[in-house]
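Chapter summary example: a protein plus fe (ii) ion.
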Amino acid sequence: MKRSRELRPLSSEHHQALLVAFQLKKGLAGHPESAGAPKDLPGLLSLARRFEEHLFRAHARAEEELLGTYLTADDMARLRAEHAELTRLVGAARTARPDALRGHLSAFADLLERHVRWEERELFPYAEDHVDEATLATIGGELEKRLVLARADGKPARR
Ligand SMILES: [Fe+2]
């Protein structure tokens, strides 16, 4: 998958997101090969919560704020709606009983995977085609600051 250098901080986090989705699915299915994922529900819930709090929120916000202006209204609406739904599912999972928890985590993993693939296959190529190089460079610099440098400092993700 070709990706402009500027959007790479987002894409490298997408790899992490896909790994989390994979781990959740395998863990929920009780699969022995779950890429190091926890096998019990509380462990899977904390995996989803850690991902949502420490990576996903700042990531989603960066996408909406930095790419939003360059997307179509429909794509922007879908971007926001899916980000909000992913956060909602983790919130619902936190307070759910075990049978419902399983459903929320599974819905979260499914949507996360679909969402990331949509961004990588459709949304980012569109943005790369519709943003001039200077703007893309500015976006890249801001992504570097928000997602790479801030995290390397050990600072909490920006909310
Ligand atoms: Fe993303």
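Key point: The helical segments are 8-28, 41-67, 73-94, 98-130, 133-152.
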